[in-house]
Structures are given as C-alpha cells and as structure tokens.
Amino acid sequence: MTDTDILVEVRDLKVHFPITRGVIFDRTVGHVKAVDGVDLRIPRGKTYGLVGESGCGKSTLGRALLQLTPPTAGQVVFDGVELTTLPAGRLRTMRRRMQMIFQDPMSSLDPRQNVESILTEGLQTHGIGTDRNDRRRIIGETLDAVGLPRWALSRYPHEFSGGQRQRIGIARALVLGPELIVADEPVSALDVSIQAQVVNLLDELQDSLGLTYLVIAHDLAVVRHISDVVGVMYLGALVEEAPSDRLYREPLHPYTRALMSAVPVPDPDVEDRRERILLAGDLPSPANPPSGCRFHTRCPWAQPTRCADERPALRPVGASRVACHWAEQIAGGELRPHAVSAEVVRPEGEGEAPGVVSAPSEPGSYV
Amino acid sequence: MTIAPGKKKQKIDRLAELAARDDERGVSLWREAFRRLRRNPAAIVGAAILAVFVIVAVVGPFLAPYSPSDTIGIREGLIRPGVIPGADGDHWLGYDHQGRDEFSRLIVGARQTLLVGVVSTLIGLAVGALIGGVAGAAAGLGGRWGRWLDSTLMRFIDMMLAMPSLLLAVSIAALLGASLTTVMIAVGVVSVPVFARLLRGSMISQANSDYVLAATSLGVRKPKIALTHVVPNSLAPVIVQATLTLATAIIEAAALSFLGLGNPDTSVPEWGVMLAEAQQYLDIRPGLAVYPALAIIVTALGFTLLGEAMREALDPKLRK
Fold first, then answer.
1. Which end of chain B is more exposed for a tag (fewer CB within 10 A), N or C?
2. Which of B29, B210, B221 sits opposite A112 (nearest CB)?
3. Which of B119, B105, B40 is nearest to B310 (CA)?
C-alpha cells in the first residue's frame, strides 16, 4: 500500500446551516458555520481520527462526507468520484461502499425491526444476494464477524445490551461490504469495559476486511489507540493533523497542546507536576466565528500581529500539518504562553465579549 | 457447599443453553405493549366497559323487553300532562315523555351511539392521518419543497383549529341539513386537525432520528423510509388519540343531537337525543336525563381508560 492510495479526499468542505426567522415566510438572518473549510485525505486501509470538543463540527463533517447532510461548498472525492455533484441515483449505489456507525445504538436502530430485518434492508436496497437463503448466509457471516449469536436474528433491539446493540449497528454497516466506515462516537455511549471490546472489534475488522475508517470521537485515548492519523478540529476547521503518535507526543498547535494537557496521566507524581493549559471561556459561536485565527480569543500564545486578522492555513511543519502562524516559534520555545485578554483586539460589535484567556506561566503553577 | 469445577461449568453451559432456547422468537414492540396492557387494571376495566357496550350495541334490539318506539304509556293512559310515571315492576326505568319504555330505548340507543362514535372517529382519523402523513413526510424528508407543502397544509389545519369545534360542527350540520350522517361528518371533521397535527409532529420527530439517517446511509429511498420506518413508529400516539377521540365524539354527537341537529326521526333512540328531550321534563322526571347521561359518561370513561392504558403501554420510555 502506497502513501498515494487515497480513498477519500475532502477539499475545502463547508457546511453552513441557515438561521431563519419569520412567522409566515422564513428569512435567513445568518449562518451557523458548522464546517468551514476542511481539507483532509484518508489513505485506503487506514484510520483517520477526528477529535475536538462538543460543537466543533466533527459530526457534521462526518455526515457531510457521506452526503447525509448536503455540503454548502467544497468537494468530497471518494475513490476518484466526486460525490457532491453526483446524481441521486448514482449516489445511492455508491452508498454501498461507505457506511456509518452511530453514537447511540438504541436510537440508530428502528425499534420495530428485528435484527434480520435490519440487516436485510441494506441487502435488498442494493440487490445483494440472489434469494432469501443467500441473504441469510451473508447475514450469518456478518453476525459471526461482529460476534453476535445466530439466535439474535429474530430478536428486537430492545432485547439487547448496549454493547450488543452497537454490534448490530456495526453489522448493519458491514453487511454491504463497504470500503469506508464513518464511525461517529462509536463507543462514547457504552460502558468503559464494553468500549474496549468494541474498539478491538473495529480493529480486527479493519485487519481482516481492509476497511478504511473515519473515527469521530472526543475521547483522546480511544482515538489514539485506533487511529493512524489524527485531525484536531476547532470551530469548524482543522487546526492540526499529524500521525497519531506524533500528535500525542509533540502537539504543535496551541489548541492541541491544551487538549493534550487535559488528558490525565496515571502516575500521580507526574500528574502533580506536569504543565496544564487551562482554556478559559466557551467555544465562540459558530454563527459568528472570530476573525483571523479562530482560536486567538482563547489562545495563550496569541500574538498582537497576524493572529486576529489573518486566518492561518493548514501548512506542513515537519510530519504534521498545522494551522498556526507561530507553530515553529512555539515549538522552539521562543514564544511563551501568557495570560492575555487586553491584547485581544476585535472589530467593534462582532461576536461576544472576548473570553478571559489564562494559562500558567510556568509548569505546575495551577497545581 | 462445593461443586466440582467441571460440574459447575456443565451446569452453567446447560443454563446458557436453556436461556437461549427459552423462546426462539424475539418479542416485538406490539406484543410487548399488549402484554403490558393486559397487566394494567385500568385497561381491563376500560375493555370490560367497552365489551359490554359493544355487545349491547350489537344485540340490543333482542335484549330490549319492549319496542323502543311503542308508546305504551300513552296507550295505557299513564301519561298525563305533568305526570310521567317512574319505574315499576315491568318497566325498570319507567317511561319517557311519550310513554315509551326508557330501559329499552337506552339499550337500543347504544347501537346508534356506537355507530356515530366509531364512524365519525374513522372519518377524522382517515382524513387527519392523510393530511398529517403527507405534511409530516414532506416536512421531515422532502427538503425545501416539502417544507413549503407542509406549511400550506398546516395553515389550513390551523384555520380549522382556530374555530371552536362545536361551532364548526353546528355550521357543517346546518349546511348539510339535520341527519345522522351530518352528525357523523361534522364530528369527524372537528377531529381532523387533532389527528393531522399529531401524526405530523410525531413523524417529524421520527424523521430526525438516527435510524432514519442510518436507512438513508444504507441507500433506502425516501418514500420507502417514510412508509417502513417513519409511519409505523409514529402511529402509536395516533391510535391512542383515536380511542380518546371516540369518547369525545360520542359526547359531541350527543351535543349536536341535543341542539336538534341529529337524526330528525326520534323514534330511533340515541342517547344524545334522549338527553335533549329529557330537558323539558327535568322538573317532572329528572331520571330521564340522568340515565342517558350516565350511559354516555360510562362509555366515554371506558374509551378513555383504555386509551390512557394504551398510551402507557405503547410509550417506549416507560418500558421495563
């Protein structure tokens, strides 16, 4: 497998939801920029992890990639085929090759369908399998692959445990023989003990079937375990993308650093002494994102120049791609974090009041 | 107590086998709901009341000791101005103002009442579910054009809702002339907006659920998603509402009959008409108003009890 074998390429993808007002006629008063210009490539057979806090647009990105939410602009190229302009009929046939696993296995399974009906639906839609027996054979193999017993077929979702339901969800995606699976928070609704089982199942399935994953999660440990490449999203855009190990060892973007410093270390001595970056304030409104670098209102490294008025592009720095004007200087230690708020210059009347940004000036000062 | 490890393992295996064999078929939501319905005392009472009501409605004319249109009291000279005799040994509830046996009229009247209730509810359900289903599917799955269609249909429904229901029914009845069919249509039309709004709202919330997204991602066509996923999952509240509407339909039909818009042929007994006629003789024989009123209340109570129990049984959030 070569590095150039790209299964999915996303170019400048934007998903803007209109905010409408009006009693009789809806009038658009603004847009929620859930995804605002994302570029990413997922190599065949690899796992791309997408992390970010709630509301940063990672789920919307996953759905837009599968054309479940229509993108406002940009392209999604799946195995050489542009999906955003594909006619509805051809898109439906393409759906066989890309499937989704949902966060909440209960709400993503129709409570009135038994497992056999859930798994047959996709097969019938795509005309897979010659007759009922052939379909039963395919379904049986899929059940084996996800570790569900055969007697599950005649049962209904409410008769299963959370982990088993998620396996049904995985089986529904797998039964079509897809190449890409978008897993939107596949384990966050499950108990920790079940999480490991499901993560390992996803890993095994990737090995045996050569699947490509886009795993969306907010649990950094899960993403690290499962991903080859990790992208960090903030307010609708990627701020950093790096091979999994590198990202966790050497985060370059200030936001990534803050995110990583939030992961607890199991050693109490290290935990007490390590540097922690606490971000103040909330995620700014995606309906009215800050100018320039989206993170500058909360960034402990924000500089008086460039940050507030020039939106940084995702650019290669070493093996990573970072959207920060000062990535090298921060990595080299030339710039130190500071507690800033006064320097944050914002255009008159735009957005909320700047959040108070603070960060420890030296390691351990928050302990 | 000690059990050899091998034996223990065997025992566990056997238990697992038994557990798996227990019942091979899964329990569907409808069966589960029915099972819970049977355990609910309110449902049993409601169902019992309705069973009695339906049996009386069907075989009523054979049960009634006298003909409901036979003016026995006048023939025998018992009815005089200002006097309506009460119960005696042969006539358990006495006579009405025309000397007809009140008990027989009450029994035979069940059929008309049931007919009015069921037919008018079915009219409301059919029209309302059609409008609501189209609007719900359009709003939930239809995109921009669908939202426009939904808005148009719903403004129409809002107009119907804005009118007081009895006034609407009276206008319809006045427009079509007084007859039993008119009463059924009028009462049915009044319940259309309720069914339409209910099904639409339920469908929109189902259309936004993850399993609809999952079906879309499987590549299932939208009309099929609407019919196989959205509609079946949205029906439960509509069915519950239908049983509750049956109760109000009976009362509304009685109100229309009371206002003189029902069946002009008063020889066919109907509880609402009986109640209306009894009004003039309230000071002489209040019982004439009490019996049909009680019959209406008890029947409506039966439907309401069953409806409420069904609501509880069908609500997935209450499932244990």
1. N
2. B29
3. B40
